[in-house]
Structures are given as C-alpha cells and as structure tokens.
Write a structure and sequence with these properties.
The complex is a heterodimer of chains A (111) and B (114).
Chain A lengths: L3 E4 L2 E5 L4 E7 L6 E7 L6 E7 L4 E4 L2 E6 L4 E6 L8 E8 L5 E3 L3 E6 L1
Parallel strand pairs in A: 2-11
Antiparallel strand pairs in A: 1-3, 3-8, 4-5, 4-9, 6-7, 7-8, 9-10, 9-11
Chain B lengths: L3 E4 L2 E4 L5 E7 L6 E7 L5 E8 L5 E2 L8 E7 L2 E6 L8 E8 L5 E3 L3 E5 L1
Parallel strand pairs in B: 2-11
Antiparallel strand pairs in B: 1-3, 3-8, 4-5, 4-9, 5-6, 7-8, 9-10, 9-11
Classes of the chains: A mainly beta (111), B mainly beta (114).
Chain lengths: 111, 114
C-alpha cells in the first residue's frame, strides 16, 4: 500500500521567515496531494492541494510543489506569522479516493 | 461551502455501552464519507470508507463489528462504537468527499470511556 513520509516532525521559525515541509510517497499512481492545517483540538482544514498534472500551485503566502519523478511534494509558507503555528499534514490519494496521511509537522512561529 | 458537521462533539460513557456519532455534509451531497481516529499528537488513522447505500470498507485491523458504520443518505453517515471500552477512548473525525478527491472534515468527537 501507499506509504507517506513527512519531514521535519517539528519546525521552529521566526516571524517573517519561510517554512518548508516535505513529503515523499511510494505509489507512482497517486494523483492528488492535499495539505491540511490542524490547530489544537480542531478539525484539519484543507489549505492547498495539487494534482499530478501540475508541478506547482500558489495561493497567497502558501505554495505547493510536486515532483512526480522523485515522488515528493513540498509545502512552502512565506512571510510566516504567529497564526501559522499549527500541525500540518500532507496526504496522498491512495486509491478509492482514500487519503493516506503523513505523520504531521508541528510548526511554531515565534514573534 | 463544503461544511461538515459532527455530533456529538464530546461524549463520556461507561464501559460496555454503545455510542453513536453522526457526520453530516451540510451544503453538498457526499457519496463517500470517511471515518478517522486520531490519538493525541498523532496523525489521522483511516478506519473505514463509508459509501452511500452500500457496506463500509474497513481498513486492516479495524473490527467491523466493533465500529458499525451506516451511510443511509448522501448527507449522513453514522459510526457506532459498540460495547465501548477505555481503549476506545479517542478523537474520532469524519470527512466527506466532494466528488473531486477533496475531503472536508467534521469538527471531531472526543470519546471518553470510563
């Protein structure tokens, strides 16, 4: 089955810096790659996603890049703000529209 | 759009009782809903895929007789934890798929079994 690895597990940055989180996957047939943000005690929220026919997608301060050959994709957050502090999960569509999640990255943005 | 509700948000029950959790898609029809379990500071673990009008598909290691899933309509799926025990205590979250792979999550249900 699909295997998703996410790094780093924790990330600490200063406000205004950029943050990058990376995920690798194993199934070359996977074609949908969403990123979710989860604040403590709350639901995961879809923040950006990318499909396999696109290499990069951007939405204001957030961008996602996909390298299908290498089977990895990354989340980029620029000009980080304290409210970006949360746990971020990557996911990969693993057949039958199931999502397989990475282990998560705890991002802390310090003022 | 793409709002998913979940009820109850929190439940405390005695060991041996059954608990039903409802998941509703409020502004769209969801042929497929998913049920996840999340332990503290851990990722989401898929338990089962709930398809409207058919039996749920359970992930390996998830007992179907323990976690009963019913998807009676395009906007409602229910998860019943039967004969709950303390080890079933967890955060249960549902999601609904819009038809283009996107999944939107409910707010979750925190189950505590005494």
């Amino acid at each position: 089955g699909e295997n998703v690895e996410q790094h780093p597990s924790t990330l600490s940055v200063q406000e205004g810096d950029s943050a990058v989180i990376k995920c690798t996957y194993s199934d070359s047939a996977s074609n949908y790659f969403p990123w979710y943000k989860q604040e403590l005690g709350k639901r995961p929220q879809l923040i950006i996603d990318i499909r396999s026919n696109v290499g990069e997608k951007k939405d204001q301060r957030i961008a996602v890049t996909l390298n299908k050959t290498a089977k990895h994709f990354s989340l980029h957050i620029t000009e980080t703000q304290p409210e970006d502090s949360a746990v971020y999960f990557c996911a990969v569509s693993g057949g039958y529209n199931k999502l397989i999640f990475g282990a998560g990255t705890r991002l802390a943005v310090h003022p | 759009g793409a709002v998913v509700s979940q009820h109850p948000s929190r439940v405390i029950c005695k060991s041996g009782t059954s608990v039903k959790i409802e998941c509703r898609s409020l502004d769209f029809q969801a042929t497929t809903m998913f049920w996840y379990r999340q332990f503290p500071k851990k990722s989401l673990m898929l338990m089962a895929t709930s398809n409207e009008g058919s039996k749920a598909t359970y992930e390996q290691g998830v007992e179907k007789d323990k976690f009963l899933i019913n998807h009676a309509s395009l906007t409602l799926s229910t998860l019943t934890v039967t004969s709950a025990h303390p080890e079933d205590s967890s955060f249960y979250i549902c999601s609904a798929e819009t038809g283009s792979n996107e999944q939107f999550f409910g707010p979750g249900t925190r189950l505590t079994v005494l």
